[in-house]
Amino acid sequence: MAIEEVSQMQLLKKPCISVNLPRCMFLPWLTVLLLSANLAFSSSIVKYLPGYDGELPFKLETGYISVGDSELFYYFIESQGNPQEDPLFLWLTGGPGCSSFCGLIYEIGPLEFDINNYTGGLPRLVDYPYAWTKTASIIFLDAPVGTGFSYSTTPKGWPTSDSESAEQSYQFLRKWLDQHTQYLPVQLFIGGDSYSGIIVPLVTKKVLEGIAADVKPQMNLKGYLIGSPRTDSVIDENSKIIFAHRMALISDELYEQLRTSCNENYVNVDPSNTECVMALAYYEKCIKDLFRNDILEPKCAFASPKLSSELDRRSLEEDPADFILSPPRIPEYWCRNFNYVLSYMWSNDLRVQDALQVRKGSILDWSRCNKSLSYTKDILSVVDVHRYLSKHRLQVLVESGDRDMVVPFVGTEYWIKSLNLTVINDWRPWFVDGQIAGYTRKYSENGYRLIYATVKGAGHTAPEYYRRECYEMFQRWVHYYPL
Fold first, then answer.
1. Helix, strand, or coil here: 192?
2. Distance (Å, rounded) from C-alpha 189 to C-alpha 220?
3. Distance of CA 190 to the CA centre of its chain
4. Are 198 and 103 in contact (CB under 8 A)?
5. What Pfam families does this protein map onto (predicted)?
6. 174-198 pLDDT, tens per residue?
7. For residue 100, what are the β-bridge partners?
8. Using an 8 Å Cβ cutoff, are 146 and 96 in contact?
9. Which of 161, 204, 399, 470 has its CA 20 to 30 A from that of 430?
10. What is the pLDDT of residues 47-97, one digit of tens each?
11. So which residues are the catalytic ones?
12. All domains of the chain, ordered by start, with CATH?
């Protein structure tokens, strides 16, 4: 998930989200004390949302669950199919720090913004027909703390890390299932995309360990799903050079020079290796003007349009050289990023927060992706975690957009092959409406079944670019049909 830059002024308005703990002064201490009392679990059913006409055609629950000093906010959408039999997903959006609302509204949920008819004011929400919630119940979790509407009740609760985020998500899931025991019998999956490629396998491992130790509640874990997954810092970064060559972004000659001079390792290069350093500089020159999320789309900086004064404080830092004020009704100037500003306008509206039952005073300024987290990336690779998981009977889907340069499919294929699984269905196209939607390969080893699929033409992350195709892929996989 692409993360936008925020201004210094915006950072100062966020309540204690970074290591600069005096920012907590912006959250009155009395409010913190009130929010800290008796908040182990709270939830509400939401039937109406500002911007949506009429009653919601699905069950939406929002709420908080206390995990240590953290109050983790979630949106839960019950399956619109058969909730008693359809699987349950815990969904974690990447970043780290991107709200699960991104997954709900831009990727896999039953709603989307009516961007094509937007003329100002509160954005309108409309139904999206190819939602994953048509066939699965999904908990969209704002994690780690500081993401979306999740917050800490104490200064010490704000700092977190990969390992702490995984533990928080696991403890959240345990407590949520304690309060929703009707979902214990259904199959459970852990899912997420982008940077959550680090967190999802860690949470899955914790669930497995909890099952083995007979920790209550006993979860009916069936598998996990990761999209465009960050997995290994070296593999993912090195794969960008190979991807650039395959996509004809760099010449054969430059690729050979990079490969030989850098010894196929482009991370933490020795500065004394001048040939490698110079080749990398030329490589950067070749790709610097690409939109890394999707190399086929125009590059344009995220910036909110000049709105009313009450919304100016929510704007992101603007770069005049890249700024594009482009309502969608001017298609030749349209940028995908324009869609994102609607989430700021909608989620920061007090009527929306009241409808979602967001606790007053807990978050002063909602961000789609919060880049000011006090967050330590303490786990650089989860390949060994996948290797551990491959010893268990799990159903796994790994999907990648094949025009994604944030986490290229090249690196994903590399670490999957390193697991040494048996290929049972070799590389082939998969189809939607008679058209090739991507390519897939199926692996199996002692009950562990992994399906890898590309989404043709999709960027980072694939469901945001090709929602229909990704829905078809998901519903076939989750119901054990071949892609």
1. strand
2. 9
3. 13
4. no
5. Peptidase_S10
6. 999 999 999 999 999 999 999 999 9
7. none
8. no
9. 204
10. 999 999 999 999 999 999 999 999 999 999 999 999 999 999 999 999 999
11. 194, 404, 460
12. 8-232 (3.40.50.1820), 235-287 (no CATH), 397-478 (3.40.50.11320)
